[in-house]
# Entry
Amino acid sequence: MQIDWFTLVAQVINFLVLMWLLRRYLYKPILKAIDERESKIVAQLKDAESKKKEALKEREEFNKKNEKFDSERDELMQKVIAESKEQKKKLTEKARLEANALKKKLDDEILANHAAQKNEIEENIQREVLEIARKTLADLSSVDLEKQMVRTFVAKVNQLGKEEKEKFVSTLASGKDPILVQSAFDLSKSEKSEIQKEVNGLTKKEYGFEFKVNPKLISGIELSANGYKLSWTISEYIHSFENELNDPIQDKKDQPSDKK
# Structure
C-alpha cells in the first residue's frame, strides 16, 4: 500500500493547528472559567462558613444576652419585691405611729380637758373654802384673813430649815433682779414692809422687791427670785387634803381581792 506523505503531513499539521486552536480558544477559556467558578465556589463556601461562624457567634451572644436579661429580670423582680415589702413595712409602721400619735393626742386632749375641769373645780372649791374661812375668822375673832395669810407666810420664811435657809440666801445673792412677791390680793404698805423686813433680816442684806397681784394663786403669797420659789397658798392645803382622800381609795385598789 502506497502512503501519501503529503496528505499525512497535511493532516498532522491540520491536527496540530486544531489542537492549538482548541487549546488557545476553547480549553484555556473553559479551564479559566472552571478555575474562576471553583474559586468563586471556594470563596462562597468560605463566606458561608464565615457567616455561619458569625451567626453562631451572634447566637451565642444572643443566648448570653438572653441569660443576662433573665438574670437581671429576676434580680430586678427580687429587688422590686424586696422594696415592695420594705415600703409596705414602712407604710405599716407609719400608719401605726400615726395611729399611736392620734391616740396620744386624743388621750392628751381628754387629760387636758379633765385637768382643766379639775383645776376649775379646785379653784371653785378654793374660793369657797377661802370665803368660808374669811367669814369664819371674821365671825369668831374679827381677824382679817388676808393679814393672817401675810403673818403665816412671814412665819414660814422665818421657820425655814438650815439647809433650805442657806439655799434661799445663796440663791438671792446670786442674782441682780429684784425679788418678786405675788399675792392673790393687794398688800398694804405695812404688809409689804413686814415681808421686806423679814427677808432682809434673814439674809442680812438689803434687796429690791417687786410686788404684783396674781389672782391665779387663789388666796396666797409666792416669793420668787432666780428660779427659787417660796409660797404659802390655800392650794397646798387643798392638794394635801385631796391626797389624803385619794390614799385610802388607792390602797383599797392595790389590795388583792379575796374573791376566787
Confidence is low (pLDDT under 50) at residues 137-143. Strands lie at 179-183, 209-213, 220-225, 228-233. The longest strand covers residues 220-225.
